C-alpha cells in the first residue's frame, strides 16, 4: 500500500480536478474508466478437508500446493456499471498495452476521451 508523504498544492489541485470529474453526470463520450492490475498466486489444497458434525463447516488445513501465478487486469466504469477483466500468464508491459489497446479500440471506440 502506498502513502502520501505530503499534501502539496499540486496534489490538492489534481485531487479536486478528479473529484469534480466524479461529480459530473454520466457521459458515454467521456467515460470515467479506472484500471488496476494484480498478480495472484494460485494454490491447491494439499489435504482433503475434514468433515465435522452435521451443520458445522469443513475444516481446511493451512498447508497448500503452489500452482503458479496469474495476473488480473481490470477496468471499471462505475457510472455505467461496466467492468472488463482479463487474466494473463504474466505481468509485463506488452500485456498491459494489449489490455489498454483493447479498451480503446474495441470497448470504448465511441468515446472521445477516456
Strand order of the largest sheet: 1-2-3
Rg, rounded, reads 21 Å
Strand content: 25-35%
Overall outline: elongated
Q: Name the helix and strand elements from N-terminus to C-terminus, one letter apiece.
A: HEEEH
Structure class: alpha+beta
Number of helices in the DSSP assignment: 2
Structural commentary:
With 114 residues, this protein is of the alpha+beta class. The protein has a domain at 32-107. Helix content is 26%, strand content 29%. It contains two helices and three strands. The chain has helices at 9-23, 93-107; strands spanning 34-45, 64-77, 82-88. A three-stranded antiparallel beta sheet has the order 1-2-3, covered by helices on one side. The mean pLDDT is 90.
At a glance:
By secondary structure, this protein is α+β, with helices and mostly antiparallel strands. The chain has helices spanning 9-23, 93-107; strands at 34-45, 64-77, 82-88. Helices cover 26% and strands 29% of the residues.
Give the SSE map.
Elements lengths: L8 H15 L10 E12 L18 E14 L4 E7 L4 H15 L7
Antiparallel strand pairs: 1-2, 2-3
Amino acid at each position: 500500500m502506498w502513502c502520501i508523504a505530503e499534501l502539496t498544492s499540486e496534489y490538492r489541485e489534481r485531487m479536486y480536478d478528479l473529484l469534480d470529474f466524479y461529480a459530473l453526470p454520466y457521459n458515454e463520450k467521456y467515460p470515467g474508466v479506472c484500471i488496476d492490475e494484480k498478480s495472484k498466486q494460485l494454490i491447491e489444497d494439499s489435504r482433503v478437508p475434514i468433515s465435522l458434525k452435521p451443520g458445522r463447516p469443513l475444516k481446511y488445513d493451512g498447508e497448500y500446493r503452489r500452482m503458479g501465478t496469474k495476473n488480473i487486469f481490470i477496468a471499471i466504469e462505475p457510472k455505467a456499471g461496466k467492468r472488463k477483466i482479463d487474466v494473463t500468464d504474466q505481468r509485463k508491459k506488452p500485456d498491459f498495452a494489449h489490455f489498454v489497446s483493447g479498451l480503446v479500440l474495441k470497448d470504448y471506440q465511441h468515446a472521445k476521451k477516456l
